[in-house]
Design brief:
Helix content: 40-55%
Number of helices: 5
Distance between the termini: 62 Å
Length: 117
């Protein structure tokens, strides 16, 4: 009987979301630019550029394919350390680790007006 109680306490509810589902939902909320809408909708109201570093690129690649990014309004996805050209009238979403180098790159992008504010 003791083993049954122990095993029952280890069961995960069927409705509990996996870590990957939680991460995917968090990334989709970020990509929706605070629209507050349903993250599972396959349309996007705002086109945007996704700028990420190597670590966050790996996170995104595990969660979404290129088509999934497009379905959520990402027109371009670029590495923060690559040379990037301005994209007029399009906001950028930065998904990067909070390093001093990344913060400096974001500040440079803002000073160059690379994307819509």
């Amino acid at each position: 009987a003791q083993a049954d109680v122990w095993n029952a306490s280890l069961r995960v509810p069927r409705m509990a979301q996996s870590i990957l589902e939680l991460q995917k939902n968090a990334v989709l909320r970020m990509l929706n630019l605070g629209d507050g809408g349903d993250q599972n909708l396959s349309t996007a109201s705002t086109w945007k550029v996704l700028v990420y570093d190597k670590f966050c690129q790996e996170v995104v690649s595990l969660l979404l394919k290129v088509g999934g990014l497009r379905n959520h309004g990402v027109t371009l996805h670029l590495n923060i350390n690559s040379e990037r050209l301005p994209v007029a009238d399009v906001p950028a979403v930065y998904f990067v680790e909070p390093t001093e180098q990344n913060i400096q790159k974001i500040a440079e992008d803002l000073s160059k007006n690379l994307y819509e504010s």
